[in-house]
Every structure is written in C-alpha cells, then in structure tokens.
Design goal:
- The chain has 2 domains: 87 residues; 116 residues, Cupredoxins -  blue copper proteins (Immunoglobulin-like), CATH 2.60.40.
- The chain is built from 4 helices and 10 strands; from the N terminus they run H-H-H-E-E-E-E-E-E-E-E-E-E-H.
- The strands form 2 sheets. It has a 5-stranded mixed beta sheet, with no helix packed on it.
- Helix 1 runs antiparallel to helix 2 and helix 2 packs antiparallel against helix 3.
- The longest helix is centred in the first third of the chain and has 34 residues.
C-alpha cells in the first residue's frame, strides 16, 4: 500500500471518528450526575465509547476505501487475485483487541473497588425488595430504627445500602447515581445481602427503578431517593411521624 493510500485511509477515518464523536458528545445521552460514584462509572463509559469510536472509524474507513478503490466494472466477472495469510496482520488484529479489552477491564476493576469503599462512618440502610415495592430501614445515625417507603439521604455523606429480597430477584437502580445492584432472596445459596455505596452530590428527588423483570407489576415497582441538606435530614430523622 502506497503512502498516499494510507493518508487517504487516515483522512476518511478521521472524518468518521469526528462525526461519531460529535454524535456521542453533543447529544445528552446520560442522566444528570448526582453521586461521586457516577464519576468513575462515567469515566469507564467514555473510555469504552472512545475505544468503540476508534474501532468503528478504522473499520468504516477500510470499507469505504475498499468500495471506492477496488470496485469492479459492471461487466467484470473475473476472479480477484489470490490472497494469502499475513502473519503480522493476524497478530495485530488479535493483540490490539486483547489490549483494548484488558484496558477496559482494568479501568472497570479500579472503579468498582473505589465505588465499594464506604469510608469509616457511612449511613447504613437495609433495602428490602418484594413484589412490587421497596422498603428502607435505617440501621444507624439519627434515623436509626426508622422504616420508610422512600429513601431519604443526606447530601455528601456516604450511604451503604444492604439489599435483599423477600421473594424473587430484584435490582435497585437510580439512573442519576449510576450504579445498579441486584437484591437477592435470602437463601442458602445467597446467605448475605448485596451492598451498594452511594455518596450523593446533588439535592433533589430521583427515581428508584427495579431493573430485573420480577413479575406482572415490575414496571410499577418504583420509589424515590430524596437527597436532603444534612440539617434538614437530621430534622426529618428526629421527627418520628
């Protein structure tokens, strides 16, 4: 392949990458970021997206260049030249994807480890899922012993959720917090609750959604996570109404 053809390929790849990047960046695909843990999750998401854009641009440029450069005339029924294996190319298209996948895996492992760290004094809440409702029981702090159908948490404080289910598998998800975690039935196979750490960074009310198909009422299994200023949260926790 001549240098001029390599330059042409690179130009096509750059155009495809720029167009795809514009679609990825300019359209607001993701919900508002409302937790510290979302930062790492978003980093992993955009890392994987960037790698996908790179691969997509390379593949598209090769296809478009081949269609333009090696197209045959309408009356050309001859066979193309025989093509033999290329060891270097085969090593490259095996090693490069392996390296990219490994990069994503390492980044995801680091983020998961960081996001599971609740610190020294998290607010602990036991989350009970059942068809088709959520229940939140506070097990420490000013709201200790209080059980509510709505999750209320203070701004800026790590919250450790212990999730379990009374019946089938459910899944706890707040899009703005970025993380999902299954709530599993208490069985010999799954004797311990799953855990999820959230450190909210924005005030507001955010939807809690079950993302595991759990029965006919699955789509109605909703609640809310209300992020409150710490003083307001303490005042709410002290009012046993």
């Amino acid at each position: 392949m001549r240098w001029s053809q390599i330059v042409q390929l690179a130009v096509v790849a750059a155009i495809v990458a720029a167009a795809t990047t514009a679609v990825a960046v300019l359209i607001p695909w993701l919900p508002v970021n409302a937790s510290e843990q979302r930062d790492g999750i978003d980093f992993t998401f955009w890392l994987a997206t960037g790698i996908c854009i790179f691969i997509f641009a390379v593949v598209c440029s090769a296809i478009l260049f081949s269609v333009w450069k090696f197209r045959a005339r309408a009356d050309d029924d001859t066979d193309g030249p025989p093509i033999h294996g290329h060891t270097g190319l085969e090593i490259a298209w095996t090693a490069v994807p392996a390296l990219l996948v490994t990069t994503i895996a390492i980044a995801a492992a680091v983020v998961l480890t960081q996001n599971s760290n609740a610190g020294n004094n998290p607010l602990r809440v036991t989350v009970t899922a059942q068809q088709f409702a959520w229940q939140f029981e506070y097990t420490n702090g000013p709201a200790d012993g209080r059980t509510e159908p709505t999750l209320r948490i203070p701004l800026g404080r790590p919250v450790e959720l212990s999730l379990h289910s009374k019946d089938v598998i459910h899944s706890f998800w707040v899009p703005q917090f970025g993380q999902k975690m299954d709530a599993l039935p208490d069985t010999e196979e799954f004797p311990h609750p799953t855990e999820l750490v959230i450190t909210p960074t924005k005030l507001g009310t955010f939807p809690i959604i079950c993302t595991e198909l759990c029965g006919l009422g699955h789509s109605l299994m909703r609640s809310s996570a209300v992020v409150m200023p710490p003083g307001e949260f303490n005042q709410w926790a002290g009012s046993r109404t």
